Amino acid sequence: MFPQGQHPPARHGEVPAALPGAVHLPWTDLTRTVRTGMPVYPGDPAVRISPALRLAEDGVEVAHLRLGSHTGTHVDAPAHTVSGGRTVDRLRLDELVGDALVLGFEGLPADAVITAGMVAALVGDDAARVPERVLVATGWDRVFHDPEQSLHHPVLTAEAAEVLWGAGARLLGVDTLSPDPTVPPDRTVPADQPGLSVHEVFLGRDGVIVENLTGLAGLRRPDHDDPGATDRGASWSAPVWFGVFPLPVHEGDGAPARAVARPHPGSALVDGLA
Known about the structure:
The protein has 274 residues and is α/β, with parallel strands linked by helices. It is built from six helices and 13 strands. The chain has helices at 55-58, 93-96, 116-123, 158-166, 197-202, 268-273; strands spanning 28-29, 48-53, 62-66, 74-76, 97-105, 113-114, 133-137, 155-156, 171-174, 208-211, 230-231, 235-246, 254-263. The chain has a seven-stranded mixed barrel. Strands 2-3 form a two-stranded antiparallel sheet. A two-stranded parallel sheet has the order 6-8.
């Protein structure tokens, strides 16, 4: 038995029953609500939710869901772009849950490019500061429901992805349709654009990508003296605790997911909430 208020240590792959010092911290839900007709990546299946059983006639409510594996907030498993890559049901919980670093870039225009230099300016030379999970906040989640403008979201360069991978990141989350350029099926990728180069860096090396997160900008620290945080006006960073939970679709290339975050224990923001 463990004393009151304490919990046994989690076994490998399990989520701890409680995080030290984090019991009363507020959660931020980073998940898109799944609904009929919601925006999807160009060419993906449309979302349709319809009644399968009704309470009045059948005694229960059951919905029929028609949607693609990359609907709303979702996880890309390596199998999404890599032949024979790991499928979403084989991702481990310890990959998807734990310390994360949010990198924020505000005021980016349409089709903006997040370069290796921009990332390095926030990450710095301290590789130990970069956890296995990095989330990129562009603020472009605000135009998710605009079918044209949302296609012109900011993107990362392959070199920026390499900086993150080299610093130890193995999961990359974004608040856009993709970390790479989004090109509708009826258009061709311009010769000067690299296609799925960020996917190649992360999924090609057995990492994970999370797309269509929302609300990352709300994780920006109000206290600029917060240990572990960086604030340079238009760019900022903040350490958080993050978890993303995809449906374990058998041999799936990806799956819709619930994603949450809260302030990192020991930060100045957390101390102010205690």
